């Protein structure tokens, strides 16, 4: 991922003024559905973006462009039809069989319930359908929960990117072959 997430306390603080309360009591077993994002998701996408990342945030206009773009997919996880739980953004390059996961985020209240895993599985499926052979991503060295998730789902560490983030932090690059 390109952007460093906010520390957890800031994430929680910011999330209180989003529409997050509706998922606060969602049962851990609630079925997660992943679909392509629509224009009507823009408010939720921008609110989660602002609550989760502290730099290189995607603006509403950028999200709107990506919704219509051939070189990007914006996916949304939801429960009970309308409850917005998280999102993943993946980029493709013409002529390249490597897809890049740019962003993965679930709402703080929805974490640890399989939302991130469901989004990632759908990203992989979508990339495969576009003929991609590999999915790559970057993650901050201290983002233990994301690293655990990626490694559990079969991602392998490819290398370290020095000063990858705006604040000077390094990133691990991970990749997974999509067979
Ligand atoms: C990283 C992130 C996307 C993970 O999302 P998530 O929705 O919590 O992911 P999951 O629930 O699928 O997996 C997280 C954990 O919950 C567990 N889990 C999965 N399904 C579960 C379920 N149904 N019930 C309970 N726990 C479950 C997983 O085993 C996993 O445990 P682990 O941490 O030991 O690997 C989320 O923490 C996030 O948005 N972080 C802030 C942004 C960020 O850092 N993004 C990535 C880098 S930019």
UniProtKB/TrEMBL annotation:
Residues 32-179 form the N-acetyltransferase domain. The keyword Membrane does not apply. The keyword Acyltransferase applies. InterPro entries: Acyl_CoA_acyltransferase, GNAT_dom, YpeA/RimI_acetyltransf. Gene3D superfamilies: 3.40.630.30. SUPFAM superfamilies: Acyl-CoA N-acyltransferases (Nat). Keywords: Acyltransferase, Transferase. Pfam families: Acetyltransf_1 (PF00583). This is GNAT family N-acetyltransferase.
